[in-house]
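>> received
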Amino acid sequence: MGGLTACALLIPTTLPARAEVELDWRGSLSSDLRLYLDDSLAYERSETTAYVRLKARLDDHVSFFGELAMVFTDYAQPQDFAGLVDRTRLDPYRFESDSLFVQFRDLGGAEGLDLRVGRQSIIWGSADRFHPTSNLNPLDVEDPIAFGKVIANEMVSLAFRPDWSSGGEDDDDAPWFDEFALELVFVPFFKPAQLPESAGLAFTDRRVFAGRANTPLTHELVAQQATLEDDSGWDFLYSPRAELPERTLDNSMVAARVGARLAGVDLHASYFRGFYAFPRAEKILANTDAIPHVDADIVLSYPRVQVLGFDAATSLDFLGGLGLWTELGLTLHEDQYRLVSTAAVGIDDVEVEYPAGSFLKAVVGMDYTVTEWLYLNVQYLHGFVDEFGARELGNYIVAGGDLKLDHDRVMLRLFNIFDLDDGTYVLYPQLVIKPWGWGEISVGSFIYSSSFNGFDETTKFESRAAGKSSIFLTARASL
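>> returned
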């Protein structure tokens, strides 16, 4: 007994000394109030968000990261009497997290080999906000003002970033080769993009759907439906529902990226195998039991794709730090079939919406700080984020700039997206005031050209599916 006690007392002394834990955290509180810019002046949203980010370094090799936002939406949804006694429906909220993972550095003793396991957001590419090579995380396009935001995915990512370089032995010379990196990513489950509510009109409203009909069967369906509605008094109710890929190993997504800096140019090549994050109508199925009322299901699916990516970026010091970048994403896909089974209008057939093949999305851009108070940014896009198939890709200019005044306490910002094919556009003017270092107030608007020209369902930014113009007021305090 005495021997066991002695051993127990000795055990703690044999454990390695625990390194001091390093904690780094940030936090913010923000409020966002918006109104639609139409005759109704209805509120689009009123949200208050508490956000915290934590990084804990437990020792030289083990860390964990976490981000959490709690969002109060201030949109009561009682709907029935039960909702009147439920605080969560009278005062609704939600949680969002962009990262929650564990990191192991120098895995297996290999310097520069890092493993991350958990909820991650990995954005690849050199362009500004528009990334045809980045497909690991679905986009959150519900909020146009937060464009470029992604939804975190559960991932296993392995990155090898050794300290390799060549050249630059002289103090005045930069290495001609450095910053080598190899990344491998495994995503067990697919998540779709989050869409704005207005996007549902593309599947439920005949006139909006007609503007996007892109095959003989869908054109025939729209024409037959219009005739039955206008001449015979029929009515159609479309109910879209999403069918996600099954949660099997075969449907898991994988990706790899390799890159380095060569002669001052950041170069990367990448590969992705998975699913396209925006839905397409794969099946249109009508129930004709209650004619002249027709209920129709629209089954939304997500195409399986492979994406070969390349991006490059550099800064030209002899031109005052002019930034240049390009990003290319070649998407390969199989035949995309569509079944239209609507006996009520005399259509029951299968067609190929997109034959097996490929399409290339591209971004070319530049930015320049003209003076310490003026910044400019211009990009050309071939293919918007929600466009699929070679014949569907449009051409766009994204341009804007920041004008800083009063020692950076006031900033005027104006950005726009212009569709070179149909002439529609989006304007995003904003005034940001930072009266003190810890907080800022922002006033602005997000304006679709439909506010000036009216709705046109055949265009990109004047269709009702794109959304309605709004004005906003935000306030933020950050630590």
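>> Residues 154-370 form one domain.
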